[in-house]
Amino acid sequence: MGQHVRNIRIKKRVLPLYPLSVYLLLLLSILLSSGCRNEGNALDKSDSNNSAENSTPAYGDTIIVGSIGEPSVLIPMLAGDSASHEVAGLIFNGLVKYDTDLEIIGDLAESWDISPDGLTITFHLRKGVRWTDGVEFTADDVMFGYKTIIDDKTPTAYKEDFLQVKRAKVLDRYTFRVTYKKPFAPALSSWGNLPVLPEHLLRGKDITKAAFRRKPVGMGPFIFQKWIPGEKIVLRSNHDYFEGRPYIDHYIYRIIPDPSTMFLELRTGGIDLMGLTPVQYKKQTDTEFFRKNFHKFRYPTFAYTYLGFNLKYGLFTNRKIRQAIAYAINKQEIIDIVLFGLGRIATGPYVPNTWPYNPDVKKYKYNPEKAKHLLAEEGWTDTDGDGWLDKDGRRLEFTIITNMGNDSRRKAATIIQWRLKQIGIKVKIRIIEWSAFINEFIDKRQFEACLLGWSIGLDPDQYDIWDSSKTGEKEFNFISFKNSEVDRLLDKGRRTFNIGERKKAYFRIQEILAEEVPYVFLYVPDALPIVSSRFKGIKPAPIGITYNINKWYVPKNLQRDKLIP
Amino acid sequence: MTKFLLKKSVEMLFTLFGITLLSFFIIHLAPGKPTDILTDMNPKVTPEMRERLEKYYGLDKPIVVQYGMWLKRIVRFDFGDSFSTDRRPVWDKIKERIPITLGINVLSMILIFVVAIPIGIYSAVRRYSVFDKVTTVFVFTGFAAPSFWLALLLMILFGVKLHVLPISGITSLDYDALSVWGKIWDVSRHLVLPVFVSAIGGIAGISRYMRSGMLEVIRQDYITTARAKGLPERTVTYRHALRNALLPIITILGLSVPGLIGGSVIFEQIFSIPGMGLLFYMSVMMRDYPVVMGILTIGAILTLAGNMLADISYALVDPRVRKA
Predict the structure, then answer these.
(1) Is the dihedral of CA A555, A558, A562, A565 positive or negative?
(2) Within 13 Å and on the Cβ side, how many CA atoms surround A149?
(3) What three-state secondary structure class fits A232?
(4) Cα–Cα distance, A505 to A462 (Å, whole number)
(5) Which member of A80, A258, A264 has the closest CB to residue B156?
(6) Is A443 exposed, middle or buried (0-12, 13-18, 19+ CB in 10 A)?
(7) Does A513 have pLDDT greater than 70?
(8) Do A157 and A80 form a contact (C-beta atoms < 8 A)?
(9) Where are the alpha helices (DSSP H) in A92-154?
């Protein structure tokens, strides 16, 4: 269902007023979340509840989802925010989607062939799928979508993957073929719901002006019904959905900009699903009322927070100093304090329990003695007895910068500052408003160390972040990491479709990153959605919970639907 | 009077031009661009694409040219299209949000005057009485309490504990199915808390103004004269004192118009009310220049109109101004 293939993106908060809003957005999104935790008490509630189900599915009822942000446009290729993608994902399907175990499977495409040289992908489309206005979905619609996305006049941030296509061709009504200039492994996943548009409704129209943008016609599990700006979007179920009519009749996306208000609405039944903050998850929902009426879920998001070193800055050109800092930071402590324990230690740029994740890299367990030892080897000792390390009359100090409005980053930086002080490194923290932070500091390389996060796509290709050619202004290897072996492996990883080969490349990259410590990978936060317990059929999976929302149902005796739309 | 109005109008036009000019340049001084939301830190965006997007929004032109383009449109009452990905006409976005914001503010204004003026009068007339002391405490508490905090407490009390009022929004989910009276009842229930919360600060302020205005007037000689004539205390208070004490309140009324939009941000946010304040805040955050400019322009027009109204009402109620 509407798996939008998410780009790698720095986690930035659109509305700086809300700490943690990124997490809230992330957890609610259909975007790709990852492996559900099955250890300890993490899934206590939901697991027992879902397995003990004995009620029968029934049609009816409404699910109300709370969101801080309002979607802006419901065409996936034009949308830049996760709220838009979340709603559009229920209206549009893609050619392919991610399965629950993160494998790419067919959606509107029944199957596809990849030529032996990896240059050509031929999609065989499902027959008899109809747009909700009754017209059949065909390869021409895909062609139309592809042409729209590469059109110069279409303002979209997702062009790049499609510009790699050398030739696209409609072979017949149900067959679509694309040929690439070079083999490009992330290509397959780009054929999600981005390039699928109804040609019969949009041909010859200006996509930046069409009413379709806010009144779309798709072929997904839900049909657009009504949008009251600033208030809510109402969808109704698509009875002709090709995977079968969804059980839930209506989906309402309520816009509630204030997190506290949203929580009160949840408490009084005004919404059925929202993302919790760690404190809400741990404390405020830890009552009899919530245990009885709600299910909480918890699984890692596809994101991580890190401390990045500017490798051009004198001090950090020395690998041993970077390693010493890694040893001096207690990651678990940061998770326990900042996220109330609701996260896990990051050891590399991938999320634990996904296929590119290499569990056997150098871990840098908290060890201040070792850190001090490494620093002493490099000549940094406390010669004047003032508590700070020094060398040749210079004190060992640096500044960590991070963006304003992200409370967890500020807290993490403070904890790091405190830990580094204990081994004699003086750290200053500067918190800067987002635009200035990016334009004046990150882009201009005016920083020593930065505390930031990436939210990552499901495809492991991270060429843009680690390749040595990506160190220019506005590019994303802003720490200026250069390693010829990593460059080679990154290229290898994106040029083959063979998962085994790719895995080998990405495993090695993680080993190198762990040895070189360009970032100290800190933590992967958990997504913390909560759902009213009258909804059954929720099957937590590595990609989250909402992927099968069309299979969720409310048993007849629990339905509370008074809504007559 | 006509001459007075004409002169005022011309003055207002120049002021308006000055306001838009200043606003336009100040907005563009803030770091960040509307395209940032699509492009910042998104590795899939190449520099060429960024340039293309900036060109698409006309951001590649010098700022003076951009202002000229904006001005050319605005004199034809065309506010342009929003820079956010929805690309809707700015006027459409503002239009659908004006009624609710104005509605709530008018209601709270009425509430403010209905409550604050009598409080002010009474505590002035019965100065240092128990009533005066109690209201003083109440008023200062109301003034000092942050409205978002007060709103949350009220939501918990009336929504969660007592279940008598809805928490947020302006309509229930079954609104469309309700009868006309049902709809009115539904909206009224939703408006109780927002109107109260947005009025509380005003009640505090206005009642203090009213009290001090009243005290000022009561000390005047003509009040003593009125009393000396043997007029009943009621007539003295309401006919002679009140009329004069109301004059400063008119000024405050005129000045409070810009607050209608600015002050709405907080309660619209906390009560999830889709009004202008929220739109303005979001637009500023996204650097959606056309919407920001649109709201600022409308705000400026409303403020100037408010000042004009205050001037006119002054002229109407105060012969000294009229004759000057």
Answers:
(1) negative
(2) 29
(3) strand
(4) 12
(5) A264
(6) middle
(7) yes
(8) yes
(9) 139-150
In angstroms, what CA-CA distances link A34 with A96, A451, B112?
18, 23, 53
pLDDT at A29 over 50: no
Q: pLDDT tens across A343-391, in order?
A: 999 999 998 888 889 999 999 999 999 999 999 999 999 888 888 999 8
CA dist., res. A451 & res. A447, Å (int): 11
Q: Give the tokens for residue A332.
A: 């678990």
Q: Tell me the CA distances in angstroms from A552 to A273, A300, A319, one per residue in order.
A: 13, 22, 51
Query: What pTM was estimated for this model as a whole?
Result: 0.81
Chain B 160-179, CB below 8 Å of chain A: which residues?
A: 160, 163, 166-171, 173-174, 176-177
Among A62, A159, A209, whose Cβ lies nearest the Cβ of B87?
A: A209
Structural fold of domain B90-323: MetI-like fold (1.10.3720)
Any A CB within 8 A of B46 CB: yes
Residue A301's CB is within 10 A of a number of other CB atoms, namely 27
Phi-psi region of A279 (alpha: psi -120 to 50; beta: other; left: phi over 0): alpha
Q: pLDDT by residue (tens digit) across A423-437? A: 999 999 999 887 788
Q: How far is CA A521 from CA A69, A285, A306, A517, B123, in A?
A: 29, 30, 4, 8, 64
Best CA proximity match to A251, nearest among A239, A262, A236: A236
User: Does residue A456 contact residue A351 with C-beta atoms inside 8 Å?
Assistant: yes
Exposed / middle / buried, residue A267 (Cβ in 10 Å: 0-12, 13-18, 19+): buried
A459 φ/ψ sector (left φ>0, alpha ψ -120 to 50, else beta): beta
d(C-alpha A364, C-alpha A509), whole Å: 17
Q: Distance between CA atoms of A188 and A99, rounded to whole angstroms?
A: 14
Contact B173 A252 (CB under 8 A): yes
Q: B202 Cβ partners below 8 Å, 6+ apart?
A: B108, B109, B112, B116, B256
Give the per-residue pLDDT at A8. Answer: 41
* Rounded CA separation A215/A1 (Å): 19
Q: Chain centroid to CA B29: how far?
A: 26
d(CA A66, CA A532): 12
Q: Minimal CA–CA distance to A123: which of A101, A97, A147, A102? A: A97
Residues in chain A: 565
Query: What's the CA gap between A294 and A269, in Å, rounded?
Result: 10
Q: Which tokens in the block code for residue A391?
A: 């060398």
Tokens linked to B150? 């007060």
Q: Comparing C-alpha atoms, which of A63, A77, A161 is closest to residue A121?
A: A161
The residue of chain B nearest to residue A435, with distances taken between CA atoms, is B32
> For chain B, what's the residue count?
324
Distance from C-alpha of B305 to C-alpha of B303, rounded to nearest angstrom:
5
Q: How far apart are CA A116 and CA B254, in angstroms?
A: 76
ipTM over 0.90: no
Please name the residues between 35 and 74 in chain A that touch chain B, using a CB distance below 8 Å: 62, 64, 70, 72-73
Secondary structure of residue A106 in the 3-state scheme? strand
- Domain borders along chain B are 90-323
* Closest alpha carbon within chain B to A267: B160
- Distance from C-alpha of B102 to C-alpha of B116, rounded to nearest angstrom: 20
Residues of B in contact with A14 (CB under 8 A): 37, 285-286
B228-260 burial, b if ≥16 CB within 10 A, otherwise e? eeeeeeeebbeebbbebbbeebbeebbebbebb
Q: Do B169 and A254 touch (CB under 8 A)?
A: yes
CA neighbor of B86 nearest in space, from A214, A92, A158, A235: A214
Give the 3-state secondary structure percentages of chain B, helix then strand then coil, rounded to 5. Answer: 75, 0, 25
